[in-house]
Amino acid sequence: MDYYSPALSTITLEQMRAELRHVPSRFRSEAEELLDACIQVIVSCRPEGSSKPSRIEPPVDSFLEQDSRLRAFLSRYLDSDVDIQRGDVIMRLCFYWSEFSEGLEHVADPESSEFFTTFHPHATGGLVKITCCDASAMLKDRYDDYEQVVGFSATLKPFDYYARLSGLDPQP
Predict the structure, then answer these.
(1) Which long-range contacts (CB under 8 A, 24 or more apart) does 115-120 make?
(2) What is the largest CA-CA distance in the chain?
(3) What is the DSSP-derived secondary structure letter of residue 154?
(4) What are the 10-residue block averages of pLDDT along the chain, 172 residues in total?
(5) Calpha distance 18→37 (Å, rounded)
């Protein structure tokens, strides 16, 4: 369930800001603008007057639009002659946002009741989190590509419960 429960934090994004100073100058300004826009999308999720974590209906279009901008920027960045280093901040920013945006597809699906989204405010912005309550259907779809699946854990009892939760057929 945790795999299908991504989050976006303004703190994490702000920590990337200092690293943008090392981005080649021809990309730096646009990268900073994109980072500011990402932070603004997250902050816009804050329910008015709320100082506690709250369940929200995320502005899916805003997240997907920002994801599209980031992907276009990443494409230009990768097509350039920039020497991509391990841990590249542009790559991390785009992946971080994209992972969350992909999770929104499940939240936006009217047939899906396994997900909900919350906003957690903090002094410098906030955190938007998608929570997956039941990943069994998605896991079961992944298992279809294999003849056998072996699951192991220290917490497989009661077996039927964990088998269903893991998307496995409890009957051999």
Answers:
(1) 115/4, 116/55, 117/55, 117/56, 117/57, 117/58, 118/53, 118/54, 118/55, 118/56, 119/45, 119/46, 119/47, 119/50, 119/53, 119/54, 119/56, 120/53
(2) 60
(3) T
(4) 90 96 95 98 90 92 97 97 92 96 83 86 90 85 82 72 75 62
(5) 16
